[in-house]
Structure formats: C-alpha cells, structure tokens
Amino acid sequence: MQSEAHSSKGRADVVVQTVTQLYIFEFKINKSAEEAFQQILDNEYAEKYRALGKSIVAIGVNFNTKRRKMDVWKQDFL
Predict the structure, then answer these.
(1) Are 12 and 26 in contact (CB under 8 A)?
(2) Which residues contact 66 (CB under 8 A, 6 or more apart)?
(3) Using one digit for the tens of pLDDT, what is the confidence trace for 1-46?
(4) Alpha carbon separation from 28 to 1, 49, 61, 78 (Å, rounded)
C-alpha cells in the first residue's frame, strides 16, 4: 500500500497492490464518488502501473460528514 502515490499529473490518495491486481483509490469529502473516479481518469493515475501487467481497478469514494460515514463509491476496471 502507498499513500499519496505520485504521478506526472498529481497524486492518487491510495494505491494498493496484490499479486494480480492494483487498486487506485481517490477520496472526496461531501462531493461525489463520480468526481473522485473522474479524477483518477483525468490525471491518468493508472498509466505508471500499466507495465506491471496487473488488472487495475479505479475506486472513487465519497465520505459524508453529516452522516459521518462513507456514503457512496464508484469502481471500474481500467
């Protein structure tokens, strides 16, 4: 696991690697999971990991401070 993983266009909040997969997480507070997910795509956070040959999953997560919990997420394979 790596937090604030640098790329040429920014930093992914968290990157987790397993033997076969790589997960890229972007977190937002009181925004939207779609916005977090779109940031992963727009900033091309996955590009530096393509050569690893692993399946890459992008996960955008929103935390709601009024409800005091994670309220929605969006994920997809890249």
Answers:
(1) yes
(2) 30
(3) 999 999 889 999 999 999 999 999 999 999 999 999 999 999 999 9
(4) 19, 23, 6, 20
Cα 39 to Cα 7: distance, rounded to the nearest angstrom:
12
74 touches 36 (CB < 8 A): yes
Residue type, 77: F
The secondary structure of 1-56 as a DSSP string is -EEEEEETTEEEEEEEE-SSEEEEEEEEESS-HHHHHHHHHHTTTTGGGGGG--EE
Between CA 65 and CA 9 the distance in angstroms is: 28
Q: Is the pTM of this model over 0.90?
A: yes
Q: Please state, in angstroms and as integers, the Cα–Cα distance from residue 17 to each residue in 10, 23, 56, following that order.
A: 19, 6, 9
